[in-house]
Automatic annotation (TrEMBL):
GO terms for biological process: cartilage homeostasis; chondrocyte differentiation; chondroitin sulfate proteoglycan biosynthetic process; inner ear development; positive regulation of transcription by RNA polymerase II; transcription by RNA polymerase II. The gene is CYTL1. Coiled coil: none annotated. This is Cytokine like 1. Residues 1-21 form the signal peptide. Keywords: Signal. The keyword Oxidoreductase does not apply. It comes from Cavia porcellus (Guinea pig). It comes from the Eukaryota.
């Protein structure tokens, strides 16, 4: 083996695997953005002193629930908290997710339920996967 080829091979081995094996997909973008919005909403409720935040529609998102589209529309159309910077930023993210779901990624999404009441309360987060022994 030529010294240059050996040096390149060694360099590739030391560099390790690429950071991301696959480019983000429409689905992964929707899922990530919905989780970010839910987190931001919970933080907004905990931190924002504005009384109006209490009257915003609840925002716990599940992109596999058909009712999520109506939930996103209701949140953006909500007249509460006009001109509150954090709420405006959150509404921008919600608009972006709605556009992605309804336009760009419409064919990549599968709705598994249409339980609108499930979007009213946060889904409990599990610490880890169960053991399969």
């Amino acid at each position: 083996m030529a010294p240059l080829t050996l040096a390149l091979l060694l360099l590739l081995l030391l560099a390790g695997p690429p950071a991301s094996a696959a480019p983000p997909t429409c689905y992964s973008r929707m899922l990530g953005l919905s989780q970010e919005i839910t987190r931001d909403f919970q933080l907004l409720q905990a931190v924002e002193p504005e009384v109006c935040v209490r009257y915003l529609p609840r925002l716990y998102l599940d992109i596999h629930n058909y009712c999520v589209l109506a939930k996103l529309r209701d949140f953006v159309a909500s007249p509460q908290c006009w001109r509150v910077a954090r709420v405006d930023a959150l509404k921008d993210k919600v608009r972006k997710l709605y556009t992605i779901m309804n336009s760009f990624c419409r064919r990549d999404l599968v709705f598994l339920s249409d339980d609108c009441s499930a979007l009213e309360y946060p889904v409990p987060v599990t610490a880890g996967l169960p053991d399969h022994q």
